[in-house]
Task: structure prediction
Amino acid sequence: MKSKTVPRMAVHLGRLKLKNPVMTASGTFGYGEEYADYVDLNKLGAVVVKGLSLKPRLGNPPPRIMETTGGMLNSVGLQNIGVDAFIENKLPFLRKYDTAVIANIYGETYDEFKKVAKKLNAARGVHALEVNISCPNVKSGGVIFGSDPKIAARVTKTVKEETSLPVIVKLTPNVTDIVAVARAVEKAGADAISLINTLTGMSVDLKTRKPHLKNITGGLSGPAIKPVALRMVWDVVQMVSIPVIGIGGIMTARDALEFLIVGAQAVQIGTANFVNPHATLEVIEGMRQYLAANKIKDINEIIAAFQTK
Amino acid sequence: MAKNIYIGEILKNEEVQKDCFLMKIKIASSFETPLPGQFVMIRIAGLNDPFLSRPISIYSFSRKNNFCLIELLYRAVGKGTQIMAGLIEGSQVEINGPLGNGFEIQSVKKNVVFIAGGIGIAPLSLLIENLCRRFPSSLMTLYFGAQRSSAVIGLDKLQKMCRLVNICTDDGSLGEKNLVTRVFQKDIKKFLPEDTSIYACGPKEMLVALGKIFSKNEFDCQVSLEERMACGTGACMGCAAAIKDKKGALVYQRVCADGPVFYLRDIIWE
Result:
């Protein structure tokens, strides 16, 4: 029997090398330890942790989630332990693994972004920062920073000045022209772009005529948003030269491969982790099988292999 | 890498009273023995609608020669549980669990009181079974309130295990026509905080009423909370409950990973 060729899975996001293109999406994988009993973190391309702010955040009052057709709404409101507690209590656990750790960061002001970036830059075991300018569930910062190209660029620049780590900027789909924001952050020095964050949505309880979420609106995620995410990734990859990370409703290797084919260098798995804690590993394995079955030796060969004609 | 997602086979799924189902599931013997108060996330494999798994507390558990049996008692109230209710014998379900922290049961006091409202009997049944076995000399008293007599589920078994069972119903069709919290309040003088352990599970209104009763005395009451969940493993932060921290400040804790059992005095009702 002929020995099977094992496809090469490593990808590069600028100077950040990942052993495969599959990462976890921020907010869906805790600080890594929540899923470490289910998933060998060493097998992942990267772990992107829950968004970190300068001070711990309480988050929004419940109810915070509601199931929708093929997805869910959430209005968690970036509840997190704060950057100091992350560095002290969560990072040592992640350092034990040979996997890239990407810290998602959030600020209500430029100054907060700056301080969080500075602290993480000095911490051992963080391989990149992902700047969250796209959370729809917080009153200040969040999506407000992400909807104006000028402000998005200024946040990017502020973070870049504080760190030597690669900076990924995570974009919101809740804008008229996502390409304008993508180009602005690229120009401001972003090393990569990730998209999309959740789409703003809502749901009403017919019995009480009240919103299902205490916050009224929330962010929609899950397989329902995949076609929208894919289209936005396609829009952006054509207009920027930095690597793009595709996020949005990926449940299977097929979903992930679609993002790579239109031009994403990597993908993030989010809501799928909730319904299938093994989703990331199954996506990696499914990608390998696809490559082997199609006699493709290196995953990079299918990135941007999109044929429109 | 200790945790797996198990495929369970439904052996029985019957309506034990209106809208209330008992599902018996056969599962691999590697399934961890659950602690009373723990739950599972259950899902029909591959289905995207309903999308999320459903958190259901474990009603009973037993180990057989080369497999385990789990029983789930659940109310078909929404899309997910209604589809669960329609599953026939031989169907397969995905099970993640056991999850969450159970009741604190390392030791119990001389008197043990259980207060159940409706389907809230589910986690308490497993607890009663466990405590009766381990602490046979404690006096077990159950207060069990339900809408009507048919909703008083598992009474025979409960009467065998508890020294005293007080039943009440909203319509008076079984036991006293009264609310379970009022029945308990009439009896509260029979118990002393220092020699009584109390466990409760039931609808929010019941727990709020209990919170008021216990605000005036020193009783410790552990309650199991229910909340919508996405992951069940502590990652999504969706199932928040408002809890008082050590300094008395409000924090949101995860019902799935920090609970589902909390001390009633720590819960902030909004």
Observations:
- Helices of chain B lie at 79-85, 121-134, 155-161, 180-187, 204-214.
- Residues 121-134 of chain B form the longest helix (14 residues).
- Chain B touches chain A at residues 1-5, 43, 48-53, 79-80, 96, 227-231, 233-242, 250-252, 257, 270 (CB under 8 Å).
